[in-house]
Predict the 3D structure of the following.
Amino acid sequence: MGRNWWVLPLLLAVMIIGLLRPGEVEAQSPNVAFDPLLLERSVRSGDSLSYTISIQNEDRFDPITLEAVACDIAEDINGTYHLVPAGTNQFSLADWIAIEPQVVTIPPASERAVNVTIKVPRGVSGGRYGAVALSPKESAAYSPGEAAQAPFKFRMASFIELQIVGGTTRKEAFISNASVLPSSEVPVVRQRVGDGAIVYTAELTNVGNIHVIARGSLLIQTEEGRTVARYPMGGGRGLILPEGTVALRSVTGPNLPPGKYRAKTIIDYGGRRPAVADIAFVVTESRVEGKAEDARPLSRLVVEPDELEVKARAGSFSSSIIELANRGEEPIEINSRILPLVFSIRGEFLPEEERGEAPEWVQLSPADFTIEPGRTKRVRLSMRPPKDADGGYYYDIIFRSTSEEATIESGANVLLFVGSEVIKKGQLGITSIKREEEVAIVDALFTNEGNYHLHMSAEFVLRRVFPQYEEEETGRIVPRQTETIALISLPMDTSPILPGTSRVLSFQIPAALELGEYEMAIRADYGGEEPAITGLIFSIEGSNGADG
């Protein structure tokens, strides 16, 4: 049945380039281009950075005078950026910006530059955001041909996203709303697909101190738990600013048979665990009925720590505390469950039905309880591994809160090591190279061959090789040299790689390489005595094919 559906991911506009303000008159827009539209940087507190905005006046007859000012940015529910006055957002960097010149006149068919310097104060951390907005200077003179009408009021913006490294970064997000509605009730979707579709929506709210990249998936199941289909969920760029809420959506065809269903949304945003919400909905012959968009927000549950590392001796008793906080406005009833912790080859949690049961010597007390708004609850995790236990044991504590609106889910990973000798050993190998029209995709597999869980980061490098040769005129031997073509780094994986399991790594490189010899290398750092490294030497020949 699922194969007959169609899916339309909503890739909504991300940034506002021209913005009219109330009372301003619309006329023909000046023909102006500029670059860059977006600046993304990682910096340390106390550092400064500079960049140049290039502005091109493409009008062949009239000059234009522009004024540059620092602004804040706000993000709407569709992931679109809007310019707002400096100082509006507590994560603003507008006060750090110096602009030179602030007013620039660009002759016809000419280009000018505006220099921007950002000085990051010491002691700050997380993310900071803003923009340099360009608009016509109010007092600027315009050509006689424009004098009879009010000039077009517009603003262009070069957006800035800074990640400040070296400080405390907190990634925390939750699903604040979820719904299943016919497209006729979602105007932003209706204008694209009409009235006959089903719209699945999950709104993710970022309450951390840095932006997150949200990638969602939708699992549709019958009331009995049978899986019907799985689809991606998206919205905007997927980037959500601190204090922002963005709707991730999937839109499918209307041919779901009448009945009762559940829509489970799983949103990975870079935290250790994804945000999960489960909502019931009903399909009848005439409509779809799910949670209304104006219903009260979903429960907000925070679990600390979300990953618990414990070392114990076989046969001994160990005890740890997990704290749950209700940061919503309604009481929440919690039911807990302990399962084996199992990940897919891509680091995703396997479905619960594929994991089996946890042993009786792992227990949580209390297992079921209520948390009032603004209050916390401490629960005790106790473990007594058997006398013959040795090595790593891994469990997933799942906390669920079910209300009339939906079921929300959070939890904690438990990483237990029993024994005295920790062995950290990893093996890395290239498994495939797939060439597409413009890029080649290199897949590698990292395998944990030790007895302890590993967190891994990886780096990929592609180099052009210039073999050793002898100069004809001088007879001098020129040694072998290399030139770096691509360098890609992957951050530390948020989900651990358990003993005896593997994790796939994928890298994308240019496919249109010049003729010659190349080498690629992949390095994985995982906390062992030495990194895992693998590589491959290949050549691009006249047919533009790759020979390993």
Q: What stands out?
A: The chain has four domains: 32-165, 170-289, 301-418, 426-547. Residues 16 and 282 are 37 Å apart (CA to CA).
